[in-house]
Amino acid sequence: MNFDALNCPYSSIRYPVYGRKGMVAASQPLAAAAGMEILRKGGNAIDAALAVAACLTVCEPTSNGIGGDAFAIAAVGGKLYGLNASGPAPRGISINKLRNQGYEEIPKYGFVPVTVPGAPAGWVALSKRFGRLSLEEVLAPAIRYAEEGFPVSVMLGKSWERAFNLYRKSLKGEEYEHWFRTFGPKGRAPKIGEVITLPDHAKTLRLIAETEGKSFYRGEIADRIDAFSRQYGGYLRREDLENYEVEWVEPISVKYRDYEVWEIPPNGQGIVALMALNILKGFDFEEKDSLDTYHKQIEAVKLAFEDAQQQYVTDIRKMKVSVEDLLSDAWSDERRKRIGTTALTPLPTKEQVGGTVYLGTADGDGNMVSFIQSNYMGFGSGLVVPGTGIALHNRGHNFSFNSHHHNALEPGKKPYHTIIPGFLTRGNQPVGPFGVMGGFMQPQGHVQVVMNLVDFGHNPQAALDAPRWQWKRGKRVELENTLPREIVDGLAGLGHEVIVTEDNVGYGRGQIILRGDDGVLVGGTETRVDGALLVW
Fold first, then answer.
1. Among residues 184, 242, 423, 441, which one has the fewest Cβ atoms lying within 10 Å of its Cβ?
2. Nearest to 479 by CA among 335, 291, 273
């Protein structure tokens, strides 16, 4: 990448960080430390990524957990490998059954939106195919944190308190009592700096490690999940868990300037970022902080979401238009023609808040991993399986309740999925992982970060620190209060419904690691969260 490491055009508390033998970037310092511990122990980037991922289920339970999904892009031997570890809807659920029960939409909480958790199977698959160390060695730091305790960090404490207050108002019923016993045993969220232990979580992680995931999908844990679901009228069954398998997929890409930008194919929404970049590559951008740049970025993202959410993207087996068509130049050329000098109003799309963790790792042998996992909407469904510490996700809330919609809920179908790992190559040679977590902000964050790096020559830290925007719906766009005033006023003048927010909650949280031609690693970590980047 061509950038000036000392050129940080935004108020930043960090410069980019350089290393050679290894690098770990994560949203939690303790999790990053675990990844570096594994690298120094002889593990590779894949082992380190799994150690970080497991630790994040402990040290950042507000955003992810054992009961969620995961996706990854791993660069091994100069080739990219894609992993889709997201789960489908249970075989016993259907829109008609839910209607007969009186539902008029898919709820946020409870058992109805719970799909098969894929994250543990994803850990096992990555470990078996590419790891050097045993899964027991890799998960040991997470087990240690869960058993011995860890102090709550600043942003985690704030997120935990928000979630606890929301759940106390929203979750009514005895099935939710296990969540409060696990994550609010003192009748409140833990305070910043308070030491927290998660003993049931530790037991589950140990079982997953010792059995290489078999306990979760075919053994003791599977039985507990099945019994809990049956007790409260859920649809998830042991058979759904037994039949689950991760998918190794070919990552998809578009050429953007001199780089290839890679994402996981649908059911993930990474294609939204690629579609938007395909539109934007038809324009020339001279500077980031210009009204023209922001306007065209926002319009391109709107058009990509319109096609993806409203018309086409879902479980790839159910899509009526091919990925190749959606990423074709003909498609992007037609969409580009719709971008004018004023804000357009796209078809209605779904707006929702996410809860996700993203991490990147690299080792001295050239291996690199872009990894993301989530429970969705914070802690997920509000359900914790008794005796396991497993917070079940609510990913099924992303399904449409309209049986004629392309993303309609169906038995065994995977929903439109928000979490997306990104990767950059140049001349098809791996450059590095990047990601911006946060619900439907994610592809928008990918577009902004890629353009910061490629079009504007920002270093990884500056690319993350740059002020962000988020299109929400219609003509509404939210802006961080660090954007220049002339941009804010200019967008309003073009017909955008501009909302300037006082905090940076909701604008995503990212990590970037890049490898230069000389093998030197350079990375940046998010300043909007308790981010940490460790090097060797």
1. 242
2. 291
User: CA geometry: angle at 270 spanning 264 and 271, to 5°?
Assistant: 100
Which residues does 64 contact at the CB level (< 8 Å), separation at least 6?
56, 57, 119, 355, 356, 357, 373, 374, 375
pLDDT recorded at residue 356: 86
The pLDDT tens digits of the residues spanning 165-221 come to: 999 999 999 999 999 999 999 999 999 999 999 999 999 999 999 999 999 999 999
Of 115, 182, 356, 361, the active-site residue reads: 356
Of 188, 125, 161, 146, the closest CA to residue 30 belongs to 146
DSSP secondary structure of 242-267: HT---EEE--EEEEETTEEEEEPPTT
Query: Does residue 1 carry a pLDDT above 70?
Result: no
CA geometry: angle 133, 139, 142, nearest 5 deg? 145
Beta bridge partners of 26: 532
For 263-285, the pLDDT digits (tens) are: 999 999 999 999 999 999 999 99
How far is 190 from 390, CA to CA, in rounded Å? Answer: 18
Q: What letter would DSSP give residue 335? A: H
- The H or E element containing residue 152 is none
CA torsion, ordered 42, 44, 49, 54, to nearest 10 deg = -40
d(CA 24, CA 52): 9
Q: How many residues does the chain have?
A: 536
Strands 429-437 and 509-515: antiparallel
The set of residues, in sequence order, having a beta carbon less than 8 Å from that of 381 and lying 6+ positions away, is 108, 109, 110, 111, 113, 114, 391, 392, 393, 394
For residue 8, what pLDDT is reported?
57
- Here the tokens at position 34 are 């675990």
Q: What is the mean pLDDT of residues 462-471?
A: 96
Pairwise CA distance, residues 24 & 305, whole Å: 31
| pTM, rounded to two decimals | 0.96
Domain boundaries, the chain: 21-156+198-247+355-393
Token pair for 1? 């990448």
Q: Which of 124, 194, 200, 189 is nearest to 161 (CA)?
A: 189
DSSP 8-class letter at 311: I
Q: Which amino acid, 510?
A: G
Three-state SS letters, 483-519:
CCHHHHHHHHHCCCEEEEECCCCCCCEEEEEEECCCC
Mean pLDDT of the chain: 95
Q: Are 60 and 151 in contact (CB under 8 A)?
A: no
Tell me if residue 356 is catalytic: yes
**Three-state DSSP state, 5:** coil
Q: Which of 373, 360, 369 minimizes the C-alpha distance to 57?
A: 373
**C-alpha–C-alpha distance, residues 143 and 66, integer Å:** 12
- The tokens for 492 are 């309003």
Q: Please report, in angstroms and rounded to a whole number, the separation of the first and last CA atoms in the chain.
A: 21
246-257 CB burial, b ≥16 within 10 A, e <16: bbebebbbbebe
The tens digit of pLDDT for each residue in 320-353 reads 999 999 999 999 999 999 999 999 998 765 555 5
Among candidate residues 308, 310, 249, 237, the one with its CA nearest the CA of residue 89: 237
DSSP state at residue 90: P
